[in-house]
Design a protein that fits this description.
The protein is α+β, with helices and mostly antiparallel strands and 322 residues long. It contains eight helices and 21 strands. Strand 20 and strand 21 form a beta hairpin.
Length: 322
């Protein structure tokens, strides 16, 4: 029996500007189908209500998704005052109303409480697992969802506009695991009113911005290699901020076979800058030598593996088949 065809081995990152109404999983499916790609995944879920940057990892890039998920994200969002909703956004059912509307000075003062490390309870309609089940599945089934509060980090949050007394638009830069819907809900409660997210757009994920994004409608035009090559970003794009080591072909071959190699035989390149990999000091940083930092192993300028150093040896963690 002939082996079933699995698609093309396309490797790299494709940045999609997700439209309103589509799930992130649906976008991944559209990319796979349009490109006939063998493997694909996304670098951070966007709700159907949200639009904006959805990084799609293709092939070997799926091994670097965690580095995107750990990076900072930027959003613009609008809060509608006066109503709370069970999903904390426009898609949910109304659970409460309030005539209170915050003034600009009140909003600006309240925002100070939402910068830095803050504690928040994720929305009931979220992908967090509760005893093995997704919270949103429990919520949709009418079950009570009691999620634990957790610490998240907000780098900056800014009031952009107040188009009318019922709405305010903000921008935020935040770390991994931060729910914008929770910020909107908690901000409103902090000011003695109610609120939910009525519009949400993600404008940056890690190194990826709107400048690199293409629309879902343009996917059909990427069927030929020249068009795809114009938009496909390298697998190692998300690894620019980790140290790099250069290896010769023999050492690279050993890593690809799952073997560890001697650290002293590698050349330290530093971290990537606009001019390439370089570091003011040729000495390996202590966090690299001690194995506390992941390292990108390169050979001939191409990524070989994500590795860790341990007792003078380089041990492969994620090997790339490129």
């Amino acid at each position: 029996m002939a082996r079933k065809r699995r698609g093309k081995p396309i490797n790299g990152w494709l940045i999609i500007d997700k439209p309103l109404g589509l799930t992130s999983s649906r976008v991944v499916g559209l990319v796979k189908h349009s490109l006939d790609a063998a493997k694909a995944g996304h670098g951070g879920t966007l709700d159907p209500l949200a639009t904006g940057i959805l990084p799609i990892a293709l092939g070997e890039a799926t091994k670097t998704v965690s580095y995107v998920m750990d990076g900072y994200k930027e959003y613009t969002f609008t809060v509608a005052w006066g109503e709370s909703r069970d999903s904390d956004d426009l898609e949910g059912a109304v659970t409460g109303t309030s005539p209170a509307r915050p003034e600009k000075t009140q909003i600006l003062e309240a925002l100070k409480e939402f910068v830095g490390e803050i504690e928040q309870i994720p929305p009931a309609y979220s992908a967090i697992k509760v005893e093995g089940r997704r919270a949103y599945d429990l919520a949709r089934a009418g079950e009570d969802v009691a999620l634990k509060s957790r610490l998240v980090f907000v780098e900056n949050i800014t009031l952009l506009t107040i188009p009318d007394c019922d709405h305010a638009t903000f921008s935020v830069i935040c770390g991994k695991g931060t729910y914008i819907r929770s910020i909107a809900r908690d901000l409103a409660q902090h000011m003695g009113c109610l609120g939910h997210v009525s519009a949400l757009r993600r404008t940056r994920v890690g190194p990826f911005t709107e400048k690199q994004a293409i629309s879902v409608d343009s996917l059909e035009s990427l069927g030929h290699s020249a068009a795809l090559a114009e938009h496909l970003l390298a697998v190692e794009t998300v690894l620019d901020d980790i140290p790099a080591l250069a290896l010769n072909a023999d050492l690279a071959g050993a890593l690809r076979n799952g073997q560890d190699v001697a650290l002293f035989k590698a050349t330290y390149l530093g971290t990537k800058t606009a001019a390439g990999y370089q570091d003011p000091s040729p000495e390996l940083p202590e966090n690299v030598v001690a194995g506390r930092s992941p390292v990108l192993a390169l050979s001939g300028g191409r990524p070989v593996a994500i590795v860790r150093c341990e007792q003078g040896r380089i041990k492969p963690v994620r090997v790339f088949k490129l």
